[in-house]
Amino acid sequence: MDFEFSSDSLMLRDMVRRFVQKEARPLEMGYFTRGVLDPQEVARLRSAVEQMGLWGLLVPERYGGGGLDLISACLVEMELGATFVPVEIGTVPPALFACTGEQVARFLEPALAGTMHIQVAARETSGVAPETWSMVAAPWDEGFRLSGVKLVSRRPGPQDVLLTLARAPQGLTAFLIDAAQVTVDGRVKGRLSLELRDFEVGRERILGEVGGALKLGGEQAPRSWILSGARYLGMVERLLEMGAEHARDWISLGAPLAVRPALRGMLADLRSEQEAARWLVLHAAWCADQGQSLKTEAALVRLRTGELLKSAVDRVTMAFGGPGPTAQIDARRMVHSLAPPEVLEFALDQARALVAAEVMAAVGGR
């Protein structure tokens, strides 16, 4: 493995870093005060992203994107993760690349253009095993009728589409449902939910094959997991910076918190773990760029970086001595706005299942 980054990769990383510092970071406090970005702020960020040539840069070339190599893409994601302002760069759930025929113009192209958002509705309170999920798809003449409950991470907009997974007789199947046709306001154990009762979905809204939902995005999934890990590392970097700034500036008992050995040790441990995870991400990205198949390696990245992010939130919250110095500087709230805990736990459970299966297969092969 070559430990040197290309000059193009470093130039791209530095450009994104300047953008985050100049355009995104100044919006953080206002974003958390209001809970949303102003439309003018969204438009300004989008314009800056387009001017830098970042929009769609991480999308595979055969789908009209930039087809950036994965190491460079990870460097971009690390920098974008270093702000808690949501910056969109034209990425979509990998499963959406299974669109065919009229679905391409109806769903894939608007999603890639950023005029439509796709939210995956897969999670349920029963866990990650699809055979335990309540959402079922009963056949009818023109398609299926869906009944059951799914957890969602945020309330969708009227132009959004919910990529919903349900158990059909043939197996787990993916459906594309317009958010404007359903209600997302139910609460299941305090979490936002989508509840359907005999909701009719035509065959033209089936993504991929009936019973083939688990195969969707299979080719792109490891790449997506590695990029998510890179984004998490950027978030950890931001949390570490916030904790260090607070330790330097907050005076307690006549001295800054930074002189406390326990706090210094906590920050040092977090920095060490972040660096180890960074090289795990970059090594997986390098292997992917070499054309290697690495589903287990990608799952390891997902698991390590996800757990590190959770740990970073806990440690920085401890450094603050509570949620945060102000309501706007709350590490837990900031992270949860971009990585909802139930989404993160769902991803971690999936990763654990894959890694555990690989470990057991290796033992069985001896």
Question: What keyword list fits this structure?
Answer:
366 residues; alpha+beta; Butyryl-Coa Dehydrogenase, subunit A, domain 1; Butyryl-CoA Dehydrogenase, subunit A, domain 2; Butyryl-CoA Dehydrogenase, subunit A, domain 3; 4-stranded mixed beta sheet; 4-stranded antiparallel beta sheet; 10 helices; 10 strands
How would you portray this structure in words?
This protein is an alpha+beta fold and 366 residues long. The protein folds into 3 domains: 7-93, Acyl-CoA dehydrogenase/oxidase, N-terminal domain (Butyryl-Coa Dehydrogenase, subunit A, domain 1, Orthogonal Bundle), CATH 1.10.540.10; 116-207, Butyryl-CoA Dehydrogenase, subunit A, domain 2 (Beta Barrel), CATH 2.40.110; 221-364, Butyryl-CoA Dehydrogenase, subunit A, domain 3, CATH 1.20.140. 48% of the residues lie in helices and 15% in strands. It contains 10 helices and 10 strands. The strands form 3 sheets. Strands 1-4-5-8 form a 4-stranded mixed beta sheet. It has a 4-stranded antiparallel beta sheet with strand order 2-3-7-6, with no helix packed on it. Strand 6 and strand 7 form a beta hairpin. Helix 1 runs parallel beside helix 4 (70-80) and helix 7 runs antiparallel to helix 8 (295-320). The chain is globular, with a radius of gyration of 21 Å. It starts with 6 loop residues before the first helix and ends with a helix. 38% of the residues are buried. The mean pLDDT is 89.
